[in-house]
Each structure stands twice: as C-alpha cells, then as structure tokens.
Write a structure and sequence with these properties.
- This protein has helices at 15-29, 44-47, 50-63, 77-99, 109-120, 136-142, 151-166, 175-181, 185-188, 206-209, 214-225, 245-258, 276-281, 299-304, 326-332, 346-353, 364-378, 383-395, 397-413, and strands spanning 3-7, 34-41, 65-71, 103-107, 127-131, 169-172, 197-199, 232-236, 263-267, 289-292, 308-311, 337-339, 356-358.
- It is an alpha/beta fold.
- The protein folds into two domains: 3-203 and 396-413, Glycogen Phosphorylase B (Rossmann fold), CATH 3.40.50; 206-394, Glycogen Phosphorylase B (Rossmann fold).
- A seven-stranded parallel sheet has the order 3-2-1-4-5-6-7, with helices on both faces.
- Helix 1 links the parallel strand 1 (3-7) and strand 2.
- The protein starts with a strand and ends with a helix.
- The relative contact order is 0.11.
C-alpha cells in the first residue's frame, strides 16, 4: 500500500489541525494510502508528557494515522525556524529510508522546504506534493510582519521559486489562486509541465461536526447568552493582522445604531483585548457582546445561535489565495455572510449562491446597505436551507475535499 508523510508546521492540539488536517487525512486514507503525520509541538517540554503523547499516538493509530512529533521553536524567529527546518528535514530523510515513503505531502512553505531538502539528500525519491494554502511571503508583507520588498521577502521568494520547481503536484485553495499560478490547469487539470493541480477549498465535515439539531442548539445557546430576542452577529477566528478588526467594530457600531439590541459574538483564540476596547468605545456594554474561546466541537452550537457571520479580511494579492474556514462553517449552520470583496472566491460564492452581502467599502453608507440587505435575507424562511445547500455543494469534506485529494494522489501515483 502506498505511503504518504504529511508534514504540518502546527501542533496536534491546535484547532486547525483538529478540524482541517486530520479530517483530510482520514479522507485520503480511504483511497488506500497509509498515513504518517508529522507535527511540530509548541511548548513541547511543558505541555506534553510521555504518557499523553503515547495516548494520542494510540488514538490516532486506531484511526489509521501514524503520528510523530518534533518540538516547535518560536524565538528568535529566523534562527528558530531555520533550526526547525533542518531538524525536520533530518527526521523526514530518516522516515523516507525507514518507511519507503511514496509521497511527501507538505502543508505550506516551511514543511515543503523540509521535504524538498530531505528528498534531495535521500536515495529514495518520493513525490513532493506542495499544498500551497496561501501566498505566504505576500501575506507576511501585507500583515506588516515583514517590510515590503525587504531581504526576508526577497529571500523567501527565491526559495519559493525553487520549491515550485521541485514539486510534482499542487493544491491551491481558490480558483483565483489557480488563475494566478496555473491558469492553464483550469482546462487540463495540469500545469505547463504536466504536473497535476487541484483546487481544494477549506472544507467542513458535515457528518461529524454539523449534523446536530440546529434548532435545539440555537435555543440552548441563546438562553445561555440571554439573547433570545436579539440579532446576533458572529465572527469566528483570529483578530488583528490581515483581519480588519477596526472595520468589524465600525460595522457593529452601525448595526447597533440601527438596532440597539444588536449582540456581537466573537469566538477567537487571540487576545480579547484586540476587540473589547473597540466595542466599548462604540457604545457596547458588557451585556452586548461575548468574546472568548470555545472548543472546536462547540463552535457549531454557537453558530446555530447566531443570525449572520462576519468575514472582514484585508484584500490584496495575498488574500486572493485564501479560503477562510469560517465561511463554510457559517454556511453549514445556515448563516448568511457579510464580507468584503477581494478575498479568495468569496465574491463569486456570495453573488452566485445568494448567501450573503458584500460590503463594497468601509463606509457608513456601505454598512447601512449591508445591514438592510442582511435583514432582508435573514427573514426569508428558506435562507438557512439555501446556505446549507451552498456549503454542501462547495465545501463538503467528503464529496469535495476528500474526492479531490484522492484524485490528486492517484495522479501522483500513476493509478
């Protein structure tokens, strides 16, 4: 049976790994592929005991995933990442020899660099699958982490060019990313060199995470939040950086001006102080919002309790490659979306499926237009069903994500 080593520069317990990586791996396994997973664990020596690692390894082994982990180092940033790359490449090189790996599946640039280095110095030559996910160098400059056209950006772009040349197949998240990187693949499914390309957006597992009784979940959470008679706007995910926190707060201020009972719900892993002072400065009392962390398994319940989902992201070259995970999660729970244009395929999704509103610019006039439209949509009895149908068509883990990954693996393996 063919083997793949999936390289992920995140920790096993992080929500992204639990909701995106592992479900995809279980789908790939259905194609007759043995799965080996490598993660990099933050606070390795303090957050994990030997017993906990063995328990997690056993639980994943029962699902058909052979899990291995290495420590993740954060500071000093460039030196720490370089060390992790070399350490990861050394580990992967040994795995190639020991396990006779057929495919190295690298999730974004840093794991791809590990895999490419390991393969270069290995006698065996597994195929390299570059799961691009996003335009990493541009994301860092757009978010202000790196200076525009600085040495870090230029160096990373040169490395990226080499990685693109080393790859045997590609995954991108959006049609826009495909148009930028591999326009010829839209018709052929392959790039100019004949390498397979698949567009696989961030998907959701309807059966595992979104199969509950939405009505009862909605009633339960709305009672707990004391918002039975209030319109709830929800934001899921990170704040700051490319996520337009100030603009979200401004939009919510317009919503509150239009309806004083408006309630703001933020489910985020980032610092609550990035949003709470902004809300209070705009007239929100403590009883008008909730900001906090919830387990990935609890997110669907909170979304069912909401009325509309927010997705405001800085639009630019980098974000054309993005498929925000929150979008399919909103839709799977029947929520119409309020988003800004220029981010991945969100524009076409909203316009073609009529599942939300685009805020054309960040002005009170545009906010008012969006508020009127979202109120109209939310009163349609069939709106929730339309949203769920859109999610099922475009973002279902099994019929979209799983099928496309298995197709790509078969191409790489010549099956």
């Amino acid at each position: 049976m063919p083997k793949t080593l999936y390289i992920c520069y995140f920790g096993l317990r992080q929500p992204l790994v639990q909701t995106q990586v592992i479900p995809y791996l279980l789908e790939i396994r259905k194609g007759g592929i043995e799965i080996i997973l490598l993660t990099f664990e933050p606070n390795f020596n303090t957050d994990w005991t030997h017993e906990q690692i063995e328990n997690e390894r056993k639980a994943l082994r029962e699902k058909g995933i052979d899990w291995h982990c290495l420590p993740y180092h954060k500071t000093p940033s460039a030196i720490a990442t370089t060390y992790d790359i070399l350490n990861g490449a050394w580990f992967i090189n040994r795995m190639i020899r020991r396990e006779n790996i057929d495919i190295l599946h690298a999730r974004v640039h840093v794991p791809m660099l590990m895999g490419a280095i390991a393969r270069k110095f290995s006698r065996n030559k597994p195929k390299l699958l570059f799961d691009i996910r996003g335009f990493f160098p541009e994301e860092y400059t757009d978010a202000g982490v790196w200076p525009e056209n600085g040495w870090l950006y230029r160096t990373t772009k040169r490395v990226e060019k080499w990685l693109m040349a080393q790859a045997h197949g590609f995954v991108v998240l959006t049609e826009k990313a495909r148009e930028i990187l591999f326009p010829e693949s839209k018709a052929t499914g392959r790039d100019k060199l004949g390498r397979p390309v698949e567009v696989i957006p961030c998907c959701v597992d309807f059966a595992a995470r979104f199969a509950g009784d939405g009505g009862s979940l909605r009633a339960k959470i709305r009672r707990e939040l004391d918002v039975e008679d209030r319109f709830v706007y929800t934001h899921v995910g990170a704040l700051g950086g490319l996520y337009l926190t100030e603009n979200i707060a401004d939009f919510l201020e317009s919503a509150r001006f239009r309806d004083a009972s408006t309630f703001a719900l933020f489910l985020t892993q980032t610092d609550p102080n990035l949003i709470i002072p902004l809300l209070k400065n705009r007239g929100f009392a403590d009883s008008d919002f909730f900001v906090g962390r919830v387990a990935p398994t609890e997110i669907p319940a909170y979304l069912h309790a909401s009325d509309a989902g927010l997705s405001f992201v800085k639009a630019g070259y980098a974000t054309q490659s993005r498929s925000p995970t929150k979008i399919p999660e909103y839709l799977a729970c029947g929520l119409p979306i309020i988003a800004n244009p220029g981010v991945g395929d969100v524009d076409s999704l909203i316009l073609e499926d009529c599942v939300g509103v685009l805020v054309k610019d960040f002005t009170p006039e545009s906010y008012l237009h969006a508020l009127v439209e979202i109120e109209r949509l939310s009163t349609r009895p069939e709106m929730a069903a339309i949203c769920r149908a859109s999610a099922l068509k475009r973002f279902d883990l099994k019929s979209v994500g799983g099928e496309r990954y298995r197709l790509l693996y078969n191409k790489l393996l010549g099956r």
